[in-house]
């Protein structure tokens, strides 16, 4: 069993290698501009914020590609023919995605301790911002995962998986402005709750559908 899981993990890592490489560029790239003499106003704080936000796109790339790419090239059918258990197959893919999400959030959290200029009274708001960004990444994970399970196109799964969190954010901003619900100060909390729930529901639905699917 362990040997089979190691083989599946290595296979899924190879499938996701380009997506993970792109994620590394999302994390490191913004910090490279600190050394650009032509943008003197750009500092570590700007780099951290941009890196933290765009690095969450990695979850959409990995989750949106990891299932659908095997359906497109028929390797999913080959795995089933070889007798690979679907629960172990999905566990391997979930492991890769979870490691990616935890790593992205952990790197952002650790680097945040080098930020300057955050007053003690702003710490709570800063941590709420971090939580909003992490929750958005989790929503990308769940939505792209579900669409990757339902579609044969990785590109479509990734693109459409990115949209839900934007709709939630726009919807809350609109209702807060015109209907005064929720209050503007409560919008981040409602956003975190909604995108986390959307990500979790999508993740569970995608996993359940994959296990119950008879396509192979």
User: What Rg do the Cα atoms give?
Assistant: 19 Å
- Counting structural domains, the number is 1
Mean of the pLDDT scores? 92
Helix content: over 70%
- Going by helix content, strand content and strand pairing, the class is mainly alpha
Multimeric organization: single chain
Q: What is the count of DSSP helices, taking H or I runs of 4+ residues?
A: 11
List the secondary-structure elements in sequence, H or E.
Answer: HHHHHHHHHHH
The percent range for strand residues is under 5%
> Major beta sheet, specifics?
none
Which blocks of ≥5 consecutive residues have pLDDT under 50?
Answer: none
Described by the principal axes of the CA atoms, the overall outline is: globular
Cα-to-Cα separation, first versus last residue = 21 Å
> How many strand segments?
0
Brief overview:
The protein contains eleven helices and no strands. The chain has 216 residues and is mainly α. It has one domain.
Give an account of the 3D structure.
By secondary structure, the chain is mainly α. The protein has one domain (2-212). It is 77% helix and 0% strand. It is built from eleven helices and no strands. It has helices at 2-15, 17-32, 44-54, 57-66, 68-72, 75-81, 86-111, 123-150, 154-161, 163-178, 187-212. Helix 4 runs antiparallel to helix 9 and helix 7 (86-111) runs antiparallel to helix 8. The chain is globular, with a radius of gyration of 19 Å. The model has no long low-confidence stretch (mean pLDDT 92).
